[in-house]
Amino acid sequence: MRLGLLVFPKSKENDSMLKRRFIDGLFDLALQQFLCLIALTDDFVTTVGKVRQYIDAQEQAKISAIAKKPDVRFAASDEPPPTIQMQPILDGLQKVLEVVLERKPEVNVAETPEP
Question: CA-based Rg of the chain, rounded to a whole angstrom?
């Protein structure tokens, strides 16, 4: 005979009380609600088994979310993806900088008024 049965004899009332305390002691509110709906008529041992299944499913979902690689797809044509010509972009940027720097008046530090 187990020691737990001597201290806490098995009866329907004791099993129900133990199950209720177990569910109330869970930190996960979603799990508590899940058990209130799913394990309504189950005994304590069956409820603990369902908690283990729930936790295993949650951990498996986290692992698969982490391990999932992004799905990258290219066009189904035989053409390579288009390349970007950088030189025209750089030339245009250089022209813009030249125009901006030409318009900027020179600032003489000695002539600026002090605050």
Answer: 35
Q: What residue spans of 25-74 are helical by DSSP H?
A: 29-38, 44-67
Asked if 4 contacts 18 with a C-beta cutoff of 8 angstroms, the reply is no
| Contact predicate 27/19, CB 8 Å | no
| CA distances in angstroms from 1 to 44, 95, 110, listed in the order given | 19, 91, 98
- CA 68 from centre of chain: 13
Structure tokens at 17: 């009380």
Residue 22: burial class (beta carbons within 10 Å; 0-12, 13-18, 19+):
middle
Q: What is the pTM of this model?
A: 0.47
Number of residues written out for the chain: 115
Q: Which two tokens stand for residue 93?
A: 């940027």
Q: pLDDT by residue for the chain (115 residues), tens digit each? A: 454 555 556 677 888 888 888 888 888 888 888 888 888 888 888 888 888 888 888 888 888 777 666 666 666 666 666 677 888 888 888 888 888 778 765 555 555 555 5
